[in-house]
From TrEMBL:
GO biological process: methylation
Taxonomic path: Bacteria, Pseudomonadati, Bacteroidota, Cytophagia, Cytophagales
Keyword Isomerase assigned: no
Name the record gives this protein: Class I SAM-dependent methyltransferase
Gene3D superfamilies: Vaccinia Virus protein VP39
InterPro entries reported in the protein's UniProt record: Methyltransf_11 (IPR013216), SAM-dependent_MTases_sf (IPR029063)
Superkingdom field: Bacteria
Amino acid sequence: MHFAPGSSRYYGADVTTASVMECQKQLIQEGYHNFVPVPFKVGTPETVLNVITEPIDLFLCVYVFCVFPTKAYGSRVLDIAYKMLKPGGQAFIEIRYADHTPISKPHRWGYAQNMPHMVTYRIEEFWENAIKCGFEPQLVTLEIEQEVRMGRRYAYYLLTKPA
């Protein structure tokens, strides 16, 4: 809700329709009516481009890249973010990073039990992926452990689409 007062419109895209509808419900209860829910199927994230047709200023994505099924899927979403942003727009993306310890490696089994550990990136790997998509990385900040106990080794990237 932090962004609601300063936004003329904002979108919530998710594979779970119930999640985006709950977001809309809560925002309406707070008096914000400029939220557009964008549910999509896991296999076709590109369909959001059919709904979000006007360029956006900010792409905000936290606690999502780590639950994607593969890094290739993450690259697809990064490309979608780039396409949606207006020139000069920014993406703020959180990932889980690998630090060469066994525990930081992705767990490619038991999705329900290991959901936040499905995909991890090396710091420079995600930075380079962003550049390949056309972004200009501005900064990365690391958080070894989150206060809310969601896990360890999170990196936050601020990326800009060139003007």
